[in-house]
Amino acid sequence: MSKSKTRVFIYGSCVSRDTFEHLDPEQFELVAYVARQSALSAYTRPVELMAPPTLESQFQQRMISGDFASSLRPQIASSAAGTDLVLVDLVDERLGAYLLPDGSVITRSLELIQSGAEQYLPQGAQYLAFGTQQHFEYWQTAISYIGERLRHYMPQATVVLLDIPWAEWSETGEKTPDSFGVSAGDANPVFQSYAQFAAQSLATQVISLDPSEVVSSATHPWGDAPFHYAENVYLNIVQRLTGAEGRVIWGAGATRTMTADLPVQQDAGSAAGASGTVPERASVQQRLAGAVQDAQAPAAPLRRLEGGPNFLIAGTQQGGTQWLQHQLSRHPHVDVVKDAAPFFSRPGRLTKDEEIQKFLEPFADGSKPLRGHRSPGYFWVADPRSEFSPPRKHDTAAAIRDMLDPNAPVLLSLRNPVERAISAYWRHFSNAEIELGAGIFQTPARLGIVDRGFYRRHYEDWARTLGPERLRVLVFDDLVERPRVYLQEALSALRVGDSPEFWDSLKPKVKVGNVGWLPQFKKQSPITAQEIAALHALYADDIRFMEELLGRELPRWHNVGRLVKQYTAEGK
């Protein structure tokens, strides 16, 4: 078989683009270049509420039109057969995105800003700033979706994330300029969280450099910026990626001049060569051998945490866990840290010393004997046999077993699974994670909208892993109707002595209702009586199981008529 080139698909911006320019053109060729497109835009429906602005540059026009068309998705499918290597960077996320009223998203790119199109956005458009909790939560679902598409259409391709920090200093020793008011020192910690999640969701191999290894260059063809590096930085990346030296582009001994619009092969399918055969996968791996970390390497063993939480609050989203956190923290012997970021469900965090230290820091105070950690996303066990379940998930209960005190109690605050599913559906729809018009049974399995309500499966797995004696189920209905009883159940599970001053000062107020933005989303994507009836039938066994486990009846969980009246248009 004749030697074939490694075919490269770029999804990113200048970091991937400039790295590609430094690859040997005799060994690498470009099949597609998707830039100026946030993962949020790529994941959501194409923009129909406004047309893309008209730009003079053909390249810029193609990129911004692709952003409006959410072109990454079809591009992945059409380029699948002709791609060996996918290069990804996250620079285009830095300016955030606009969520439009119909659920579509426009990337806030340099081209969008310079065109003046921002002032013509539809009324009701919401700006999602990069680094905010709202943006990060939306983006996590979007990048996970892109990972699924890459694995589905390009299982043979190597996916590499270029996790290169912004340069704080130029090669002349001067401070790098800010990018839209953001300095490298401020941007790098924010990008770190996104890069860690992207590496996990895309199942990528990662090329990382230390901040001390990157400097910018005022002689970069596209100007001085914290992500326009000196040429030796790109040569370093190429060396780590391929194991071979890269080519010099603009320095002494340059072999060619860079161009803003990289050449894009028009027919990705023709990349197989004149014979029409696809080169063996082994040849690509040989070119990249030793350059990247093996994404499938065995996981490092987990270690017992010292000084961390000694109880957990889990359960379901919209199930009262945040209220419980606030109330318990008022007790003189109990503290629940405010940070609810998942830890035990994120395998990328469990073996890294810096991630473990970051998780443990809020517990270092130690002024109260009981220290709690809350995350409502933990209580979820996948079943690949179920059409509603993702094919696999990290074993969160096993991580809790291996890393926490073996006697640490776990509070599970659970809500009627039908109401939980409805609440999750509207929440994900409002976050632009569900296509307009998709019913509750057509939602992506990775969101768990239906699957999280199969309480029997989740509880039995956690009981086998942790022991049933460590689990205490609390019922959301009690929180609403009898909040003091609900709270007493939690304190009893924690084996906390009574505190008259705690009860005397406590004024538990429980407000269950719509947040301001929810009514408009209910109108856009209503729940039907048929869907509620189907959900109730689907969860019938789980409801019976919970009644047996608790030794009590849960009448509100059986009242389909009440649910129809409360949650559907026909019930109003």
UniProtKB/TrEMBL annotation:
One Pfam family assigned to this protein is Sulfotransfer_1
Q: Which UniProt keywords apply?
A: Glycoprotein, Transferase
PANTHER family listed in its UniProt record = BIFUNCTIONAL HEPARAN SULFATE N-DEACETYLASE_N-SULFOTRANSFERASE, HEPARAN SULFATE SULFOTRANSFERASE
- The reply to whether Nucleus figures as a keyword in the UniProt entry is no
**Official protein name in the record:** DUF6270 domain-containing protein
Residue ranges of domain Sulfotransferase in the record? 310-489
Organism field: Promicromonospora alba
Ranges for the region named Disordered are 268-292
Highest taxon in the source lineage: Bacteria
Q: Answer yes or no on keyword Transport.
A: no
